Amino acid sequence: MQKKNMNEENNDWGSIGIGAMIVFIALILVAAVASAVIIQTGEKLQQNAQQSGSDTQQEISGKISIITVWVGAQTANAEEITMVFELAPGSEPIADSAVHWSVICDDGANTPSVVDGDMSTATNLDTTAIANNIFLPGETYMIDLVVGGVANGNADCPPTLNEEHSMVINANGGGSTYETLYYQSLTQGDQVV
Predict the structure, then answer these.
(1) 126-136 residue pLDDT tens
(2) What is the pLDDT of residue 10?
(3) Which among 75, 77, 79 has a CA at the least distance from the CA of 192?
């Protein structure tokens, strides 16, 4: 039987140690790459969540809540509807001229007619003028919207018995409100929302 030399035994241990060291370094590199991917994914998710939050806040911070709409004065070629509204919860103050309304209806020839304008003629519900022409959260406002007649080059959407009209209210840089107006009666004061 031949005896192993002490030098050969140390060489085997050294080669085993070098192999283990290579595997250890490879594991550290894999862990570093995996952690970089996880950190990058976390940052991207955070950025997306912040952007979504900003978009949602922008959408809500400038939105109108319609409380009620009723048939207004029915003067020929200047038919009105009256709307009572407020800013949605969480909204920022908005200039009255920065809020626009549109009423969309069928003109009878299967093409849409649109009547629109801004909210600069709105008053506080107690019929006082709006301070600095700015809608404030917590205040209730009222406006008469002329939807009949051809005013300012707009089309004609007068209240018509048993018809549905669409109302859209947009705040510049804010949200939109959609409502369907259904005319079950044309008597002044009868609700259409």
Answers:
(1) 766 677 888 88
(2) 59
(3) 79
pLDDT in tens, 150-185: 655 556 888 988 889 999 999 887 788 899 999 999
The pTM of the whole model exceeds 0.70:
no
Report in angstroms the alpha-carbon separations of 192 from 104, 121, 125, 147, 157. 14, 21, 19, 13, 14
Q: CA angle, 128 as apex, 122 and 129 as ends, to 5°?
A: 55
* Chain-centre distance for alpha carbon 128: 30
Helix segments in the chain, DSSP class H:
6-60
Render the burial of 35-46: b for 16+ CB within 10 Å, e for the rest. eeeeeeeeeeee
Residue 66, helix vs strand vs coil: strand
- The HSE-up count of residue 106 (CA atoms within 13 Å, CB side) is 6
169 sits in the region (left: phi over 0; alpha: psi -120 to 50; else beta) called: beta
Task: Give first-to-last CA distance, the chain, whole Å.
Answer: 106
Q: Give one word for 103, left, alpha or beta, with left for phi > 0 and alpha for psi -120 to 50.
A: beta
